[in-house]
Amino acid sequence: MADKKKKRRRADPTSDDDDESLPFKNILKPDSSILRSIHQLTASLRSSSSAASSSSSKSLTLADLSISSCREVRELPISSVQSEIESLMLKVLHSILDGKGFAFDVPSRAAANQLYVPELDRIVLKDKSSLRPYANVSTVRKATVTARILQLIHELTIKDIHVTKRDLFYTDVKLFQDQSQSDTILDDVSCMIGCTRSSLNVVAAEKGVVVGRLIFSDDGDVIDCTKMGMGGKAIPPNINRVGDMQSDALFILLVEKDAAYMRLAEDRFYNRFPCIIVTAKGQPDVATRLFLRKMKMELKLPVLALVDSDPYGLKILSVYGCGSKNMSYDSANLTTPDIKWLGIRPSDLDKYKIPEQCRLPMTDQDIKTGKDMLEEDFVKKNPKWVEELTLMVKSRQKAEIQALSNFGFQYLSEVYLPLKLQQEDWI
Q: What pTM value is reported for the model?
C-alpha cells in the first residue's frame, strides 16, 4: 500500500516532492545565503536614507525645481477644509451678485494636462483649469453635482465623521446616477480646495490586505500581521488611523493578484524570508497606496513587486511608483519611490522555461497598450523596463503569475521567489 501511495505522489504533476518537476530548485543556495543578499539590499537603502536625513538636503519638491506651472495638494485639517469650501462658495455668490453668473473654476485632470517630472520620478498635474458654468447646457449637470458634493463635504467637516465613497453616492442617487460620476467630481473638489482626498473625510471601502512581519496600531488597537491567518489584515481605509509601525522584515513584497498573495500567505513565505506582503487585489486603491508609502518611508524597507507579465501588470506597478494620471494632483502623497520590478518579467518566460500552453497570446489591445507605454516618459527613463516591454510586444506573449503553477502549486514560494532573491534579479 505504501509503494502504491509513493507511485501516485510521483505521478502527481502538482507535487513539489519531486525535484525533477521543479526546474532550477537544484541551484538554490541555503536560505541563510539568500538572506545575506537581502540584508545587503536593506542595509544599503537604510544607509542612503540615513545619509539623506542627516544632511541639510530634503526631498525635492516642485518649488525646488522652480516648476511653477504645476499644482499639488496637501493634507489639510478639517477646519481648513471647511473654511476653503466656505470661501469657495462666497466667491461663487459674489460672482452671481456681480452679474457674472454661477460657475466653478475647476482644474483640468485631462491627460494633456499631466507632466512627468524625471527629478521627482512621478506624474504631476499642470495648472490649466476651465470654467464649469451652471448656465450652460453642456455643464449644468456637472456644476449641480459639484455644488452638491461641496455641500456634503461641508456637512462631514461640521460633524467630523468619515463616510465611504459609496455612502456619498447614495445620499443623492438620482442626481449622481452612477458612482463613477460622484467619484470623479470628488477628485475635482480635492483639486479645487487644494487638499488630499483623505482630507475630505471620504474614504474607499476596504480592499487591500497585508500579512507578514508587521505590527502597527489601528485606531489604538495593536495589530500583529503574523497572526492574521492567510486572509491577512484589511488595510484601514483611513491612513490617519495607522501608527506605530514596527517590523523585523527585510523587504516589502508588493503582489498584484489576490491568488498569488494567498499562496504566499498560506505558505508563510514571510517566515522563511522575513518580509511584509501586501496586495490591492488588482488595480491599486488609494488606501493601499498610502499604506505602502507609509511602510516604505517609516520602516526604510525596499519594495519588490510581483506582477503579471503583461502591459497591465507594468501599468499597475507604475501607478504605485510614479502615480496615476487620474490622481496626479496628489502624487506627492500617493507614490512610493524606487520600487523594484522583481517579476514576472517577459524575459522570465524563457528563462524559467514556462511552457507554451501556459502563455497567452497578446490581444491587439494588449499590444496597443504595450506600445503606448513605451512612449511614456517614466518608462523611457528606465532602459531595462524598455527592454522588457519591447520583448513583450515583440513576442506577442503574456503570462500571469499563476503560470508558474504548472511546475507545482508551491513553485512560486519554493523556487521562483527564492531564486529571484538569491540572484538579486530585480530591476
A: 0.88
